[in-house]
Each structure stands twice: as C-alpha cells, then as structure tokens.
C-alpha cells in the first residue's frame, strides 16, 4: 500500500463518518419522537442550518432517537474501518457497504454518496495503474489538490453554517461550493493514485 492513496482514502473515509455523525447527533437531539416521513431534516428549526436546508436525510426507522443512535454507531464503525482496515482485502467494498447503510437510517444523502466514491477508489488501492505524462502531472499536484479538497468540504460544513450566522444565506454560493467540493474530492482521489502507481497492470 502506497502512502498517497492510503492517506487520501482514509482521510475522506473519515470525513464521511464525521458527516454521518453530525446527522446522527441532530436526530438524537430531536428526542424520542417519530419522524414526519421518510425524508427528514437532521437539524430542523436551527437557524444556522438553514443554509444546508436543515441537513436532509432519510430514515426507515420509526423513531428519531433510535435513528440518530444507529447513525452515530454506524458512523463510528465507518471511521474506524477507514482508519484501520480500508487497505485490507475488500476494504473498499466494506466502506461502500457501511456508507450505504447510513442512507436508510438517517446518515444524510451526501455522506453515503461520498462514501461510495471513496470506497470505489479504495477497491483499487492494490491495483497498479498505467503511467503516462498526463498522469504524472496530476500525480505531482496531489498534495495541493488533497489540501484543497479537505478545505472545500469543511468550507461547506461547518464553514457555511458559521458564515451564515453573519451573512444572509441566500447570498452564499452553496451550489457552486458543493459542486467544487465533490469535484475536488474526485480529483484528490485520482491524483493520489496517479502519484502512487507507475507501472502497468
């Protein structure tokens, strides 16, 4: 296992778990009540979270307290897996499965999607990629893209939540930042692999 690919998959797998945790905590704080429907808000009635539309999620669990507890537990397991075991055989696949489990229990929509992307790259960590001049150029910029991707995500959360307490939410570039954040994530993963592997399959 090479450093750049392992570090990138682990870092963003951990971020996925943190995002799931944040949803779960919001659901726990709503208490022992039933959800109003399958699609819920993890943080309703919180002005700071209006910029994130209350953190939408879905849950098939008929109790928000239980939904939040399960989301927190699965998120912790996902973080531990990303940190300790993602480089093992089927490590990326299990990361994907854990991310998918988050979806129906209240872990939001973006975290499962991010987890599937990260886990998909995790499944390729032990493969060797064909080297090319273009890939070499991308690989050499890995560290910059990696940092930018991390900053982009945390600019969304908790960045936008904090900023929206001082600036009107409708004036903030949420859609653009969301697109940029996901694009940076994919570029960080791609560049980490191209920085790592230099021989043909």
What kind of oligomer do you see? single chain
Helix content: 55-70%
Q: Please provide the count of β strands.
A: 2
Please give the domain count. 1
Structural category is mainly alpha
Q: Segments where pLDDT lies below 50 for 5+ residues?
A: 130-134, 197-201
Total count of helical runs of at least 4 residues = 7
Secondary-structure element pattern, one letter each: HEEHHHHHH
Task: Write down the overall mean pLDDT.
Answer: 87
Q: Estimate what percentage of residues fall within beta strands.
A: under 5%
For the largest beta-sheet, the strand count, sense and barrel status come to: 2 strands, antiparallel
Radius of gyration: 18 Å
Termini separation: 15 Å
Strand order of the largest sheet: 1-2
Please outline what is shown here.
This protein is mostly helical and 201 residues long. The chain has helices at residues 3-29, 64-84, 91-105, 110-122, 133-140, 142-163, 174-196, and strands at residues 39-41, 56-58.
Write up this protein.
This protein has 201 residues and is mostly helical. The chain has one domain (3-196). It contains seven helices and two strands, in the order H-E-E-H-H-H-H-H-H. Strands 1-2 form a two-stranded antiparallel ribbon. Helix 1 (3-29) packs antiparallel against helix 2, helix 1 runs antiparallel to helix 4 (110-122) and helix 2 (64-84) packs antiparallel against helix 3 (91-105). It is flat, with a radius of gyration of 18 Å. It starts with a helix and ends in a 5-residue tail after the last helix.
């Amino acid at each position: 296992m090479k450093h750049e690919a392992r570090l990138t998959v682990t870092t963003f797998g951990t971020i996925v778990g943190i995002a799931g945790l944040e949803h779960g905590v919001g659901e726990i704080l709503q208490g022992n009540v039933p959800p109003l429907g399958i699609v819920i808000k993890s943080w309703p009635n919180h002005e700071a979270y209006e910029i994130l539309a209350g953190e939408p999620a879905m849950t098939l669990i008929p109790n928000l307290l239980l939904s939040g507890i399960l989301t927190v537990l699965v998120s912790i397991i996902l973080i531990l897996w990303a940190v300790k075991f993602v480089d093992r055989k089927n490590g990326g696949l299990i990361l994907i499965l854990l991310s998918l489990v988050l979806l129906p229990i209240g872990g939001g929509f973006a975290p499962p999607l991010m987890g599937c992307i990260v886990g998909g790259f995790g499944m390729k960590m032990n493969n060797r990629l064909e080297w090319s001049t273009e890939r070499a150029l991308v690989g050499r910029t890995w560290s910059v893209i990696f940092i930018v991707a991390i900053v982009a995500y945390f600019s969304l959360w908790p960045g936008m939540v904090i900023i929206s307490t001082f600036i009107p939410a409708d004036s903030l570039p949420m859609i653009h930042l969301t697109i940029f954040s996901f694009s940076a994530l994919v570029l960080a993963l791609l560049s980490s692999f191209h920085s790592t592997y230099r021989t043909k399959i």
